Amino acid sequence: MIDREQHICDNMGLVHACCKRFLGRGIEYDDLFQAGCMGLVKATDGFEEERGLRFSTYAVPKIAGEIRRFLRGLSSMRPLWLPVWMSPVEPAEMGDLFASPLPPEELYADQLATWERNRHLSLPEQAQAFFVEHYLSGDILVKTDRASMLSSLESRAVFLDNDIADFCRRLPFRFKIRAT
Q: What span, in angstroms and rounded, lies between the C-alpha atoms of 32 and 34?
């Protein structure tokens, strides 16, 4: 059995290679990289060595798919960006499950209510409130990794522990934005 953390670190080059394919779309490289890292973690967790595939053959479509999912989320109206991107199932696929199309406004009603309730906040603070309410409950480390993107942390779930994640979540927002 391979060491998960080491395997992820050893294959970061795949993420960089995939991110280069998506440059020039008005999205910062760091954002593409973070979405790609989520794909790498999913690929690492889902890879079955006994099937005889090379890891890169399995991982590249997972990484590129996670980046595409990130970009698809940005094509929605702003309050739906985060729910569409964070959702494990695409809205169209949900419609297939229920045998009738579901409008995104109905599908993500709870998330939209959170967004509206925090309308008075700045965009990053709205996003932080969204993550805290919908994705950080229960000390879920993988979801904390996604929330780390909000805080511009260059870290991944495999390297975080719940104490660090909780500390970062409680920092005043003015300390979380990197000035470029």
A: 6
Query: Phi/psi of residue 71, each to 5°?
Result: -65, -35
Tokens matching residue 91: 């809205």
DSSP, residue by residue, 50-115 = GG---HHHHHHHHHHHHHHHHHHHHTS-GGGHHHHHH-SS-HHHHHHHTTS---HHHHTHHHHHHH
Joined together, the tokens standing for residue 89 give 């199932």
**Buried-exposed string 35-59: b where 16+ CB fall within 10 A, e elsewhere:** bbbbbbbbbbeebeeeeeeebeebb
Question: For residue 51, what are its two tokens?
Answer: 């099937």
Calculate the alpha carbon distances from 74 to 21, 69, 141, 161 in Å.
17, 9, 24, 29
| Count of residues in the chain | 180
- pLDDT tens track for 3-16: 888 888 899 999 99
At residue 19, does pLDDT exceed 80?
A: yes
- Residue 87 sits at φ, ψ, to 5 deg, of -65, 135
